[in-house]
Design goal:
It is a single chain. This protein has 87 residues and is an alpha+beta fold. It has one domain. It has a five-stranded antiparallel sheet with strand order 1-2-3-4-5, covered by helices on one side. Strand 4 and strand 5 form a beta hairpin. The radius of gyration is 12 Å and the shape is globular.
């Protein structure tokens, strides 16, 4: 199945925070939220250079500390959705 049809939402804990990763397949990005609050997105998931874009200024320091883990989790969720879009 193509990436455009992949759908996946996953909640994980990072540093005692429950985060929801929601894929936006046509944009190759994962939106990250904590409850109703947006943290940001991991973009360019279909490339070798994904990046974290923080949309909440008050979350910038926390996101910078956890940048590598946030990107890694988004990549893992993206790759799972591409391989098994029914999961």
């Amino acid at each position: 199945m193509s990436v455009e049809h992949a759908k996946r939402v996953e909640t994980i804990e990072i540093s005692e925070r429950s985060l929801c990763f929601s894929l936006i397949p046509i944009q190759a990005r994962a939106r990250i939220t904590a409850g109703d609050d947006a943290i940001g997105s991991v973009i360019r998931l279909d490339t070798d250079i994904p990046a974290l874009c923080v949309s909440a200024p008050l979350e910038a320091d926390w996101a910078a500390i956890h940048r590598e883990l946030l990107i890694a989790e988004a990549i893992r969720i993206w790759n799972t959705a591409i391989k098994d879009p029914e999961s």
